[in-house]
Amino acid sequence: MSVPLNGICGNDHLLHFETPLQRVQIETAHAHILLTDPATRSSGHAVLDRASAIAARYGLRHQLRSIKSVRNGEEYR
């Protein structure tokens, strides 16, 4: 399964991930970056919501725990 990720490299490029795990990992990393800046914090939470939905759909419990840890980080409140 190939999952496109739009918007990171501009409209001309599509990144493809072969597994849902890869998608969740990159989305979580992207959200982590967005959460570090108060101006993009709400976007970071939206990206985490997407990653969480994918992780739940595919039973990626460890990734769900990681997402929860990022979401509950004191520096992002």
As laid out across the biggest beta sheet, the strand order is 1-2
Structural class: mainly alpha
N- and C-termini, Cα separation: 35 Å
Largest sheet: 2 strands, antiparallel
Q: Please state the CA-atom Rg, rounded to the nearest Å.
A: 12 Å
Task: Give your account of this protein's structure.
There is one protein chain. The protein is mainly alpha-helical and 77 residues long. The protein has one domain (18-76). It has three helices and two strands. A two-stranded antiparallel ribbon has the order 1-2. Helix 1 runs antiparallel to helix 2 and helix 2 (41-57) packs antiparallel against helix 3 (61-71). The protein is globular and about 30 Å long. The relative contact order is 0.16. The model is unreliable at 6-13 (pLDDT under 50).
Sum this structure up briefly:
The chain is built from three helices and two strands. The chain is mainly alpha-helical.
Brief descriptors of the model:
two-stranded antiparallel sheet, 57% helix, mainly alpha
